[in-house]
Amino acid sequence: MTGKIIKGIAGFYVVESGGHTYMCKARGIFRKDGRKPLVGDLVRFSEAETADSEANIEELLPRTSELIRPAVCNVDQTLVVLAVRTPDPQFLLLDEYLVTMERQNVPAAILFNKADLDRDGMLDRYRRIYGAAGFQVLTSSAVTGEGIPELREFLKGKTTVLAGPSGVGKSSLTNLICPQAGMETGEISRKIARGKQTTRHTELFPLGENTYLLDTPGFTSVYVDAEPDDLRLLFPEIGALEGMCRFTGCRHLAEPDCAVKAAVRPPDQLPEYSGLRAPCGLIPESRYDSYRRLMKGLSERRKYG
Asked: What are the structural domains, with CATH classification, of the chain?
């Protein structure tokens, strides 16, 4: 039989096939070959022969993609979730994650949750920034239900990783879209204005019509594994200006006649968000600031190891 691993528990794997789930063990040959089944793997497995025996994963089918953190595979897209406020968005953290997905060739979109808390127009600002950068931007409210139909349509027919910091409402959204998930939800810590982590493992939730949602533990940092000279290509709106600077190989930092620096604009000078899927030619200030900070960190890491 063939199926998809939707959860791993202490050496056992829950495999979903034809609307049913099977608890399986992996054959020892995988350990011998240095391979480990991952959530999202398509597998061939044999059913248990008796009530006292176990079903076994016999073969791991070829993977179309593989992520290191979270450790999952066969993902079609990532949806990075941030809150409009409570907690306030951490844009460097978001940009680090977007760079990581770009490097792994996994399409990424952004969802700003808690739209019901947008009382000062910040949501429009965020849409402009990431729309100009070429990302699809969705909004939602787990409280009012705003944006949930659009979110369902975005997920349809895909395996999607739902990622983001703790406290932004990922588990609440998962419960709305997939009530059978029964995800625990938490509150914001007043002392540090940060969410309490409620998702402690990685699990795929089948939503029907070949649609799967993967909720992941919240993250507070992202390790960007890239060479400094590759970073400019991992920011789509910066990569779009490649070759337009005066100097070949321009890092867009201190060099004169830099097309990237000339394109940097504050949010109020960016076009209104219209669901753009390609960079508009202007670079948001906050994105350029993330680029500079990441470039500095990568250069120092390379220099000092």
From this structure: 2-62 (2.40.50.140), 72-215 (3.40.50.300), 228-304 (1.10.40)
